[in-house]
Specification:
This protein is 47% helix and 12% strand. By secondary structure, it is of the alpha+beta class. Strand 3 and strand 4 form a beta hairpin. Helix 3 runs antiparallel to helix 7, helix 4 packs parallel to helix 7 and helix 5 packs across helix 6.
Amino acid sequence: MAIPVVRDAVTLPVEGMTCSSCAATIQGGLSRLPGVEDAVVNYATRRATVRPDGSVTDDDLRAAMRDTVAGLGYSVPEIHHEHGGDAHAAEHAAHMSADAARIADYKRRFLVAAVLAVPTVLLSMVHALQFDGWEWVVALLATPVIWWSALAFHRSTVASARHGATNMDTLVTLGTVAAWTWSTVVLVGGLFGGFDGGHVYYETGAVIVALILLGKWMEVRSTARAGDAIRALSKRQSSTARLEDGTEIPRDAQTFFMPGPSIAEAGDIGRPGLDDRGFQPVAPVFRAPAKGAGVRAAPEEPVPGAEEDAMHGRAPAPERRAKIGEEE
């Protein structure tokens, strides 16, 4: 007998992703959670969606998802339903608030980096402007850029490293910290007679941070606008679907049955509904050969390929509600 399994997806908004690698990291972390059958993270819409296997409650799963996302260095914004109970409007407002905060933060950090990076580059590259001890001035100018302006990159790198992952921020951290560390070793070592004639690369780290911040600022602005357009478009979709018999069901309702050796009896496959088992009986199942009209399948008639699907662990076939062709 086929086993009815109804799965309702659990979705949470996610903030803090800076590239598709971030989405892949979160998706991998959610996929390993107990009670999760499948997980998908969309970088464009900033949503994490998991399909539970039914072994844990939705509340426990949501809590585990929040902890996992936070542990990876990202955040789940709080959704306040102050828009007439419209969940989409509340999520949109949360995203807009988070976007505004990120845009302001990137702008502030970029401006500080740019103001300090310009004299750093001039002193480092224009010999006519150099004087005794200019390296120390450059060090003072570049240090806030590398350690404060780029703080978000360093945090993301550390959070990813704790889970054995890397992302684009890892490259920024490695490059800038390496440049600052070597330059500081050369500068301090010169006080004790070592590294005489060694070069400092503070300007390299400062310029990298300033340019990356400029790109991030512009990216967040464009991503926010694109995300707003995508969410506005998704809200225009119908929330219900009409079946052949005129019945309307939620559009996002998903019903599956596990592969078995025979067609289930009426009522074994269905969606949450009316009978004492929690399922509403559906129309008879019809099989459609490669040629000819659809033929009604008897309850115990073998289903071609069902045993092979079950043996190889393939995904369950979706319930077919509409009749194909005419009965013979």
